[in-house]
Amino acid sequence: MEIQETTPISISVANRRLVKRLLLITVAMFGFGFAMVPIYDVLCAITGLNGKTGGRVAAVESSAVDEARTITVEFIASLNVGAPWEFTPQVNRMQVHPGQYYQTHYLARNLTGHALVGQAIPSVAPGLAAQHFQKIECFCFTRQIFQPEEGREMPVVFRIDPNLPPDVHTVTLSYTFFRVDDAGG
Amino acid sequence: MTTSRIAQAGAIATGGALLAWSAVAHADFALNMTPGATAISHEVYGLHMLIFWICVVIGVVVFGVMFWSIYHHRKSRGVVPAQFHESTLIEILWTVVPMLILIIMAVPATKTLIRMADARDAELTIKVTGYQWRWHYQYLNENLGFFSTLSTPQAQIHNDAAKGEHYLLEVDQRLVVPVGKKIRVLTTASDVIHSWWVPALALKKDAIPGFINESWTLIDKPGIYRGQCAELCGKDHGFMPIVVEAVPEAEFQQWVATMKASKLNTLTASGGKTL
Amino acid sequence: MSTAAAPALDDHDHDHHAGPSPGLIRWLVTTNHKDIGTLYLLFSLTMFFVGGAMALVIRAELFQPGLQIVNPHFFNQMTTLHALVMIFGAVMPAFVGLANWLLPMMIGAPDMALPRMNNWSFWIMPFAFTLLLSTLFQAGGGPAGGWTLYPPLALQTGNAFPFVILAIHMMGISSIMGAINVIATILNLRAPGMTLMKMPLFVWTWLITAFLLIAVMPVLAGSVTMLLTDKYFGTSFFNAGGGGDPVMFQHIFWFFGHPEVYIMILPAFGVVSQIIPTFARKPLFGYASMVYATSSIAFLSFIVWGHHMFTVGMPLAGELFYMYATMLIAVPTGVKVFNWVSTMWRGAMTFETPMLFAIAFVILFTIGGFSGLMLAIAPADFQYQDTYFVVAHFHYVLVPGAVFSIMAAVYYWLPKWTGHMYNERLGKIHFWLSVVGVNVLFFPQHFLGLAGMPRRIPDYALQFTEFNMISTVGAFLFGFSQLLFLYNVVQTIRGGAKATDQVWEGAHGLEWTLPSPPPYHTFTTAPEVK
Ligand code: HEM
Ligand SMILES: [Cu+2]
Ligand SMILES: [Cu+2]
């Protein structure tokens, strides 16, 4: 090479080896950026970051119902931009005992004259309660198809895990309805 | 000559900055953070001032030493440069002492942060939804919800009319809340991320589509508290203010009753939203 | 388009003992570190004026309440592009230019380790920025979602979007190639006797910066790639409706973003650590602790990114962690400042232009550090976040911080590079106008932020008027003062008093043993370092 060192060959070999290693780091860090996605999801599941609650079925468990404790559960509904539904909880709030299963509904109506596909995204506040909010049936587990003008009740079956931290008295379950067919925003 | 100029300019600059900042200490809203209208906002203001003064003291000491040196250790005064270039003791000292100062700051900051995170046992929950470019408020304990939009006329914005007192900080429908009650605020958004900020409440929380964020406030004094969206949300990000009006409980109940009956209420009788 | 430089590379000049190629071709095909350093610095200067013009548009609009000059959409394009141009076009390339010129001369190497890659990493840049700036002329305009590119807002960008992403990828590739080159040069080409702990601090800070670049530029590339696929290929990394999370973008972005701010300041630390000992005529105080402090800052910079996200609704434990970690950064930063002051202590100082800029750096960067410490306090940050207080903070660390250090470096080494002394009187005038301008420009922004003015808004409430006016006056003063700098540099390149080899009485280091200007190829035989 062009470098007039005492051992020119060893330098170009060293350069090549170093460049290879550094490129390896580069590629690894590019991958790390993507790896942050699943890492973040795991962290969310553990910490309830962002109030993310599983869009997944919780295993049915039977454990003692804690009659002594009453938790207020609030239900709220939001629509994302470009989601032409009417979307509301059947009830705004419920008093529940941890450990007991309850059922409630959300009502949704397609306001357009054509079929729509929607997906409800759950979120729980306070975030720490998210992992203790267990759903065994929920319209948020799958995409929901609506015929033109169709309206229907969509059930949620849930319970509050008795391990909910004792200082939590109110839990809010929120669903945001997103339009997910291609015409959606 | 140059050096004395530097020293002079430095002295003037430091003095000026100090003067300006001591005016800050007099809680002028236009110059400093507002102490606000809640216990939390007072705590935050206290923290802000504490850390500010610690920084001022450190700054005066460090810059003082530096300017002293700049003045006295000039070549033009015929000094012979020393050649020392390390001192383990002093280097350990100026690592450890700042650590201790940081701990002094961290203790009250931690306490306040813990209190801010505690939204338990609120008497009222309000859901705040950010839209491009207005806010929607929903009172979960009532069947009440409405939009709140900038009310400053376009003519004022485009300089075709004189600007009013609350230019850009006024809305058609204020968020009316009772004083003396703990209010839980749930923020979310319908399109992009917004951030709901009212300085007097020391409350700023991002409104994120698909997620709800929890925070709370408890306002002591009746009054009108103005804020703005604090996360870039597109073209009219600068034009979606927040106006909170804190009123006594009875007045609040009356307002709720009127609002519920009004056609501004975007929630149907069944609680259904007609957006 | 981006491959236009490729054919030129094939007839690359392998014989480094020849002089430069004739004419303009020289600049296209050059693999000489001095030529490439010059190209980088000129490119950076150009971008500094482009980004500066955008800043003046912003400040002009904010001179008074009401919309006067631009509409809100264009205003947002200006803030977005101003930041991208200044960060990736002005500050980063300036430091790469300095690295190119100085690293080989400081460590006694004949050139950079990978000269051909060096040519590439420079020539990618003009194409990247042509692409980026061309979006301004597209229907729908340029990117307007802020340089932080937060989704979902960034996904509302029109046709400019893929151009912006591609431009960012190109800048990233250029930076990574530059960083690899720097590391290879420093690790493999040091002259005999130049042990790591004998390297000048500028070399040390660049070595650490280069590792930061390699660690985080690919993460930025990953995050913008995900944005691209979310927009065009139906993925849902950041779309809540598809099971993603917009906040996750912020985590990935700031994992890049916080180290990025140190990428822009560590080489500045290096520059100042070269200049202060020269003009104090006294060795740098605490050389070893400077190296350790720089390394610990670099390490800490990977674990504090959450301080940009205190308001997104993290769990309490997360906020506490990021608050404590961020506060910790103040310790090594403080060590550096104390070391600089101790270097001046009992020196024999003179105050030529580079020293003036270096002293201003120490003071004003420290003020930016103080406001950083305030921002680190999470409960208080809820009030500061996304206000002009943050704007004041990062401009104090970036303008009288990074930019002043670059100017100090240019005044300091320009006589070496060109063989001519710059006009000292003009340099001092430039300094004083700049230092006054920058403070009039940014100091009032602290007050604006505390009083409640959000950042990134084209219009504001009436109580913010006075300080905005003052700030705008400062902006124009600062902006136009930079023409003096341009004039001074151009004049020095063209001629002027002959510079000696050592240039500065107190200068030490290998580069000062070379003639001024140094011959096209230097240290073709390695110098002996005692
Ligand atoms: C003592 C050291 C520092 C501390 C403790 C610190 C702390 C912070 C914090 C907490 C924020 C977030 C503020 C907010 O958005 O609410 C911030 C923002 C920022 N800092 Fe620093 N900082 C320090 C040094 C630096 C340096 C050296 C630079 C660059 C040279 C820098 C550049 C920035 C930038 C560009 C932003 C704003 C990013 C954006 O939102 O666009 N900071 N800093
Ligand atoms: Cu906004
Ligand atoms: Cu940061």
Automatic annotation (TrEMBL), chain A:
Membrane topology according to the record: Single-pass type II membrane protein
Entry keywords, A to Z: Copper, Membrane, Signal-anchor, Transmembrane, Transmembrane helix
Localization, UniProt: Cell inner membrane
One GO molecular-function entry: copper ion binding
Cross-referenced SUPFAM superfamilies: Ctag/Cox11
Membrane-spanning residues: 21-40
Chloroplast in keyword set: no
Function: Exerts its effect at some terminal stage of cytochrome c oxidase synthesis, probably by being involved in the insertion of the copper B into subunit I.
Protein name (record): Cytochrome c oxidase assembly protein CtaG
Organism listed in the record: Candidatus Contendobacter odensis Run_B_J11
Automatic annotation (TrEMBL), chain B:
GO biological process: ATP synthesis coupled electron transport
Domain Cytochrome oxidase subunit II copper A binding: 121-258
Domain Cytochrome oxidase subunit II transmembrane region profile: 25-120
Taxonomic lineage: Bacteria, Pseudomonadati, Pseudomonadota, Gammaproteobacteria, Candidatus Competibacteraceae
Chemical reaction(s) catalysed: 4 Fe(II)-[cytochrome c] + O2 + 8 H(+)(in) = 4 Fe(III)-[cytochrome c] + 2 H2O + 4 H(+)(out)
Protein name: Cytochrome c oxidase subunit 2
Annotated organism of origin: Candidatus Contendobacter odensis Run_B_J11
Primary localisation category: membrane
Broadest EC class assigned to this enzyme: translocase
Keywords: Copper, Electron transport, Membrane, Metal-binding, Respiratory chain, Translocase, Transmembrane, Transmembrane helix, Transport
UniProtKB/TrEMBL annotation, chain C:
Location of the protein in the cell: Cell membrane; Membrane
Keywords, ordered alphabetically: Cell membrane, Copper, Electron transport, Heme, Iron, Membrane, Metal-binding, Oxidoreductase, Respiratory chain, Translocase, Transmembrane, Transmembrane helix, Transport
Annotated membrane topology: Multi-pass membrane protein
Pathway(s) per entry: Energy metabolism; oxidative phosphorylation
InterPro entries, per the entry: Cyt_c_oxase-like_su1_dom, Cyt_c_oxase-like_su1_sf, Cyt_C_Oxase_1, Cyt_c_Oxase_su1_BS, Cyt_c_oxase_su1_dom, Cyt_c_oxidase_su1_bac
Keyword presence, Ribosomal protein: no
Occurrences of domain Cytochrome oxidase subunit I profile (ranges): 27-530
Keyword Translocase in record: yes
Signal peptide: none
Any Gene Ontology CC annotation: respiratory chain complex IV
GO biological process, one term: respiratory electron transport chain
PROSITE patterns documented for this protein: COX1, COX1_CUB
EC number: 7.1.1.9
Free-text function comment from the UniProt entry: Cytochrome c oxidase is the component of the respiratory chain that catalyzes the reduction of oxygen to water. Subunits 1-3 form the functional core of the enzyme complex. CO I is the catalytic subunit of the enzyme. Electrons originating in cytochrome c are transferred via the copper A center of subunit 2 and heme A of subunit 1 to the bimetallic center formed by heme A3 and copper B.
Family indicated by similarity: Belongs to the heme-copper respiratory oxidase family.
Name of the protein in question: Cytochrome c oxidase subunit 1
UniProt lineage: Bacteria, Pseudomonadati, Pseudomonadota, Gammaproteobacteria, Candidatus Competibacteraceae
